Amino acid sequence: MKKIILLLTLLLLVGCTEQTIIGSGEYVCEIDSDCLVATLDPCTCGSGGQQKAINMDFQSSWQNILNEQYTDTTCEDEISDHASCFTEAKCVENTCQLVLDKSLFCSGSNAKTNCETEEFSQYGLSCEEIVLICG
Q1: Domain-embedded: residue 3
Q2: How many Å apart are CA 80 and CA 21, to the nearest integer?
Q3: Which of 4, 15, 97, 124 is the most exposed place for a label (fewest CB within 10 A)?
C-alpha cells in the first residue's frame, strides 16, 4: 500500500514544476478533455524541452506568453528524456496535471538503464523514483 501511495504521489508531482501563472483558471478542470499537454518553454520534447498540463481554454494565452518571454531561445538537437515528455494531461481533483505513462517512460527513455551512472535532473525524477516506477 505504501508503494502505491508513493507511486501516485510521484505521478502527480510530474506536473508540479515551476510554472508561469496565466490566470485563475489556467489549471482548473472538470474532466480529462478539459486539459491538454503544452510545452513548458518554446522547445518541444523533440528538441530538449519539457511539458506541462493546462486547461485547453488557455492554450492561446500560454502560447502568447511563450512568444513574449522567449524571443531568443535556441533549442537542443536531441530528444528530451524528461519525465514530462512521457505523460498525458488528466484532470485530477479538478486540476490539470501531467500523469506519467509508466510503460512509455520505462521503455522509451534511458532513465532506468542509466540510473546508476548519470545525473538525474534531466529526467525530473530521482534514481529511486525511477526504480520504483519502472521496477
Answers
A1: no
A2: 24
A3: 4
The rounded distance, in Å, linking the Cα atoms of 51 and 44 is 8
The tens-digit pLDDT sequence of the chain (135 residues) is 444 333 433 444 444 444 444 556 899 999 999 999 999 988 999 998 999 999 999 999 998 988 888 888 888 888 888 889 989 999 999 999 999 888 888 776 666 666 666 555 567 777 788 888 887
Residue tagged 506541462 (cell numbers): 52
Closest to 132 in 3D by CA, of 109, 106, 107, 114: 106
Residue 79, phi then psi, degrees to nearest 5: -75, 135
Residue 125 included in any domain: no
Q: Is 32 within the bounds of a domain?
A: yes
Is position 96 within any domain?
A: yes
Q: From CA 44, how far away is CA 66, in angstroms rounded? A: 12
How many domains, in total, are found in the chain? 1
